Amino acid sequence: MRYVIIGNSTAAIAAVEGIRRVDAQGAITLVADEAYPTYSRPLISYYLEGRVAEEDMGYRPPDFYARQGVQVRLGVRAARVEASSRRVVLEDGDELEYDRLLIATGSRPLALPVPGLERPGVFYFNRFDDVRALARVAAPRRKAAVVGAGLTGVKAAEALARVGVHVTLVDLAPYPLSAVLDPAGGEMVRRRLETAGITLRMGCALEEFVGDSRTAQVFPGEWQDLKEKYRRCLVGQHRLTGVRLQDGSSLQVDFAVVAAGVVPNVEVAEGTGVEIHRGILVNERMETSVEGIYAAGDVAEGWDLVRKERRVIATLPNAYRQGEIAGVNMAGGNLAFAGGVAMNSVNVCGLHVASAGLSNAEGPELEVMVAGDPPRWRYRRITLREGRLAGFACIGNVGRAGILTALIRAEVDVRPFQLRLLDEGFGLADLPEPVRRKWDWERGERSWASR
Amino acid sequence: MSSKRVVWNEEACIGCRLCQVHCVTAHSRFPGDVLKAFKLDPQRPVPRLVVEETGPLSFALSCRQCEEPECVKSCLTGALGIDRQTGTVKVEEARCIGCWTCVVACPYGAIRAGAGDHPVASKCDLCGETRSVPACVEFCPNEALRVEERGV
Lengths: 451, 152
Description:
The complex is a heterodimer of chains A (451) and B (152).
Chain A: E1 2-6, H1 10-22, E2 27-32, H2 44-49, H3 64-68, E3 70-74, E4 78-82, E5 87-90, E6 95-97, E7 100-103, E8 107-109, E9 122-124, H4 128-137, E10 143-147, H5 151-162, E11 166-171, H6 183-195, E12 199-202, E13 206-211, H7 226-234, E14 240-245, E15 250-252, E16 255-258, E17 262-264, E18 280-281, E19 293-295, E20 300-304, E21 309-311, H8 316-330, E22 343-348, E23 351-357, E24 366-373, E25 378-385, E26 388-395, H9 401-410, H10 433-437, E27 442-444, H11 445-450
Helix pairs in contact in A: 1-8, 4-7
Chain B: E1 2-8, H1 18-26, H2 34-40, E2 50-54, E3 57-61, H3 70-74, E4 80-82, E5 89-91, H4 101-105, E6 112-113, E7 121-122, H5 135-139, E8 145-151
Antiparallel strand pairs in B: 1-8, 2-3, 4-5, 6-7
């Protein structure tokens, strides 16, 4: 069996591990446009801070590919897939034949429709190359705007502030982490960011990135052109002078970071007959609509267990689960994914924030319970739907929150003990005896479901 | 591959928490000396097992050493993995950044946020580095804990 994997991040690596659980012999070829061995993307902010060195960025040890028997083609992009002849055509003209193909091309930063985005001095915060370039302009007392106060933007702002940059965090949303937190939780994160010396401009849309007049060269703003754009910024040919906001005010900055969300890299699947919505549509086995082609990770649109719909869940744990299931099935195994649960855990300037499922939602069908002491950095929000746990957010103390995550997956009736869910000491002893007796997750949801 | 783990007998556990005391001691700078571990270790570790108690029910829960560990699959950096030799779930502490994604992923709540200057994921390591029998098992006065070997 010949396997080709496009991509080299979490889902791709998980697929290699999944394939090798079933097939020790088959030829695996992995191709990716980034020239680095697999690295942990969340570590880029730690690299920028200087807390993690380049050699410690690896998501797997350096001997991973050799040990797993994987041929790697790094630094070359897969240009297109020819599904009828089962070939992947690379940018350099080479062709790879496959019996099973995994598309794990991930996502790229959303290009804000804002004039000046293409100017050198405007960075993204998704790839190692982004922070390698940023590390050279991020110096004490320089000024930066970070656009987008989601998880990526918040971590970018924190890392820049830690190296002494004067950071202003800008977002149209009324508070940071608005995609996962409610206003009370978001307010805590705002306070913590401000304590770390970061200025927040919330509820504020960006109008323009302003550069000096010499900035004549226009870059398409596509991620593949970033290297050249970054180079020009670094050699001082062009610079950014500020950003203009919609309320008419301006910020003087030396550079900016855009973290306004991500979009799936579906292009390689176009023209193959693979069904694409926002991401590449996959079933519970991570199969696309074309036989022999699978997709997993940020590029895939699979079942969301909580929202009961197909949706892109661009989180690392979901990418691993999908990638591993894809790999096992590609190799002839038979695994079905009950569905993803959006789950995040992040440390914001020392404040731990964890969320899963419908962590900030409100609605007539939802029951929301909150507890804690926000001024003293403690908050817990529980979302119930039809007597089941549908989501949570824990701030300050995230201890044992995994039991809550599993309760979401278990879809058990939590009404008999629902108030206990708000208690930081909530544990397995709080579960009704029949539920506690069958609380077996040692083989994931399969052992739970088999009980 | 086989793997070991600590299992409990809730009929015998009285929730005395001596397992926690000896877990802390075994992982402190003064393994084998309870008093020094609690009085002299400036970075006293957190216990790697949880004692739960409601009414007469009590049990001491530690890592189940899952075959399909959610913590490993969720780990952002690759610090968590299954040890090839022992089959147990292991934290490579130098690579842990303390994001606690594993804490939010473990269905048993068996991974805790560590203490100290560089807090890392703290979980049962079966005292593998230092002892032949895990300290919690050895010192449980009611023999409510034992090591179970699971063949795969």
